[in-house]
Batch of 3 targets.
Target 1
Amino acid sequence: MSRPRLRGSRFATRRAHLACLALTCSGLAFGQPEVHPLDFVIGDFADERTVPVAVLTTVSIDGRRCSVQLDTGVSRAFILHDRQDGPATSSITVELGSLQSTHAVPDADKRRLAGCRPGKPVASLGNAFFDRRTVVLDFAARSLSIHDAATLQDNPQAQPFRYATWWGAEGGFILVRVSGTRHLPSEALLDTGSLRVDLGVLDSATWAAIADTQSPIAMPFSVPSWGRLIQCRKAAARWPLVVAQRPAAKPTLTYCPDLAFQPFEPILGVLGMRRFLDGAITIDFISHRWRAPVLIAALPGG
């Protein structure tokens, strides 16, 4: 799915990052998770102002610290933003703690990346970068934990997912179960790149079937995506859906007709991170299971 790339940012302290480099870079070798800080890009989305619109972490690209977006809507390990035309005659090395990958790029991109800096994302890390490990994105604590083992295979609160390798390239897409969809498909693509989206609808037929266009929140809006402004709509769903073990609720639907992403098979849409920003999501790529934040009921009088 195309990624919203909105301007404006607010970043957490770098002290946590320095502590991570000093203490945890060899963590996987000792069976402990590596922990890295998360940052948010702050911007506008629909009628919301100054809200988190993308989640970032800091990597090393050829030895230089650069910000990248964490995006499970991308199957490949690494995708440059604003990639230049031309043959990929150079290469870059991307490192996140002990994880490392090398990628062929045009000479112009290698020169451009030499000037990257934290705070301005230059690329996205996709599923193939992590897909032999377990990752925990704790949005509330602003931390990314990477485990070199399956952590959810025996967890009763975890849910299975299907790892779809539609185009035969590296990585895949995380398809999770959604209940209560009636006649519509019952899988959605789990997408950390859609931070403000609850459920993103991908086609007009699904939008017509499930969107309550007379709901009070219904409205058109536009969003920058991959260097262009695309037109979108949002509305409440007509009926509630169930995701993981969370209570049934009517999701807020988003539909952007001009998005380029079209899956290989029918799915309900894209499950974004909007409902999970109060906690952490865990993705176990080894056992193909995931866990959403558990909703805690308010105490009496709270």
Target 2
Amino acid sequence: MKFYLVVLSILCLSILSCKKERTCTCQIIDSGTTTTRSQSAGVAFSLNIGIPLPIPPITITEAKDTTIVTSYAYGNSRKTTYDKASKKTITKACPTKSEESYTDGSTTIIPGTSTVTVSENGKKTYTCKIE
């Protein structure tokens, strides 16, 4: 009787731990801020006709420096299917939770008039589960 019980338990364990198709589903939350800084040069007009006149230059537009900060948060999900994977393999491949930070930036220069600088700072959070 013991022999059959041992054989049956080994058979059950081998069926439970066999390799099969497994799925890792991750919820991805991307959040952070985008900072946009716009700097423009002022435009002045001066009447210089060759004779020194005490006329000051006329300002057409003033120099400006503007900064706008915008927050954002996006949600997304990703599903990955592993064929013939054991439970141990899928546990290593599908982390429970992880985070990554990132920074990105760009600058656009219009010669003589303005500069626009955009920088993005954020964090991606992954929360995964095995199905």
Target 3
Amino acid sequence: MIARTALTVLLLIVLAAAPSSSSRSDDTKVTPERSVGLTGTYLELAFTGLLEIEDRGEDCVYKIPKLTILFRQIEKRITTIINLDNFRVVVVAPHQAEKPKSATSYMLEQRYPIQPPLKLLVNDTGSQSIEFSVPKRLMHQAEYLAFGLTGQATMKGFVQIDKDDPSKTVKVENVSRVIWPIPINDNIISHTTDSNGEHGTIVYRQPRDPNDDCSSAKIR
């Protein structure tokens, strides 16, 4: 009898000390992911900034208070002038990540003019503030959101065609339309390369809350 009573008292103490189901659910609430750093390079351009996100009911609103763009010198023999004229946003349809870029299907593509266009020479830096929105119904279905800058690149100069003879060059003069994606390195968990240094598998961070359509983890 005494042993049974002692066991009952011990059980009551354990139950009293255990957290209630409501307190456990409060502890496991996921904090919304509402910002991500913009740091990365693509070809001649390097980017720094911070993307902030607001959930406004039907829409996800994305704001970049200041996107800094640096034009890096790649080839010393080539003079390049870049005129950036649009900020481009694409919402990528489901199951597109493994497809070639040329075959990627978009649920939405928007271009927002840069006024006035940014003209960049070697080592020039420019900046832009940007705001755009995407319907949550699209982000709910989408595989990911991506954005970048579009513009015109003018290249003039001479390219060495014989690595053993610097005097053997060919004149280059080319004007082309270019898209410079803005990489979101903060959302990359791992990135492998093959023996030739080519890009291999990229593993991206997933939203902590699968139901958070405005999560910063849904941007690549």
